[in-house]
Please model this.
Amino acid sequence: MREVAGYIPDIGEEFQWKVLQYGDLEVEIPLLTEEQMNLVIETVKKGSEEILKSLTISEIVHIIDRVTDCLLDRNSSYRQKAEKLLPIVTGYDEEMIRLGLTSYLKSFRKHELQRFLVEDLGNPLLLDDFQPRVKGGFSKAVGPDLITHVWAGNVPALPLWSFVSGLLVKAGNIGKVSSGEPLFAGWFAQLLVEVEPRLANCFAVVWWKGGDEEREKSLFRQSDLVIGYGGNHSLESLQSRIPITTRFLPFGHKISFGLVLHSTLDSQKAWRTAHQAALDVVRYDQQGCYSPHLFYVQNGGNVSPKEFARYMARELENFSKRYPRRRLSMEESASVTSWRQKEEMSLFSNQNKEVLGNSANQWTVVYEEDGVFAPSPLNRVIRVISFEKVEDLLPSMKPYRSFLQTAGIAACPKELFQCAEILGRIGVTRLTALGRMTAPEPGWHHDGRFNITDLIHMVDIESSAEEASERFAPYAD
Model:
């Protein structure tokens, strides 16, 4: 079985294809020389200037909405390919891919994109023309000529966040896909061109081996902005290869967690809460930056933290039958096994601790009292820690301040805002319901930043210039 990945605009040349192997599936993806990359850069910049920047933001939103409709339609050839091939490439369960794609793609429909733009800009028409400011004068939002995206492949279709953001600011876009998931960004680009053929030369989706400086050097030098996703070590290496004159927006490793307050732990609500918490663990096997590494559960409810850990274990066992965990690499398997063995050995010195898991080692739940904040080896390995007061958690969390992102929370309204105030001060940038940790809302502030505003610069016409221009108008005499 063979599939063509990526997307290259018309540069008038034949190019080399790299074959990536995934079992019986061969994925062919363009591998450009430095000279061909320069042709692509020139073509994409020109296409952005002549076509993309001539479209209104309403027209761009309409195009993306039509593409999204196609990808949500299970009868479309692109959606059928996604449901068939992404499980092969990523190893994730077919049903998990299907449900995950639907939930994720709904963020890119027309009304969600409009909210996305309003959230960041207030007035989306700033992307089309100068708009009046309350204090006087006018402003316009101007996007880059070229954005380069270096995407990760840990979560299917992840590139859409930055790709769509780049389109909304009318920039030319060149994306480097990961070997972990090289398909979806190319399908999205192909669909964009099918919906609006004029966009054919406004973007490219390519691949090269990480650290290939020959192919990176020219691209990074000619980019206005590079957006990078991945581990912190790889992003540090990437940054060292980007010229000082090119802006760099990194999205690195993050740690997210759950927080369950005792007010939610009665006999009627606790099962539902545990189910939602387990769902956050199961989705893409904790590979997203917003996936939980551990859950803090407060003492004092009708259901104790230890009982809650057992509830989660039962839910993870049920989920493992419906959504089997993907097959782990040797390195991942060794990491999980070593972590679990270490936890089991500690049972001899800690009688209040429990290590739960099934015989196939598909998941692990560790319960302990007053444990410290620490990352999980992921792949359905989770720690449940009991606590008394939210303030007691802060000392062990503060050293991870620069890594904190999402907190999935189960609390009553008053407690929700109290926790948001406390957690926001130590670096948490997003609070969401349990069961929604891996599904950010449209327009969310990724790592506390603005998706659109970070990509643009503002051009201001001050009121003094506007007033002075009146003296030179033909009707002034």
The chain has a mean pLDDT of 94.
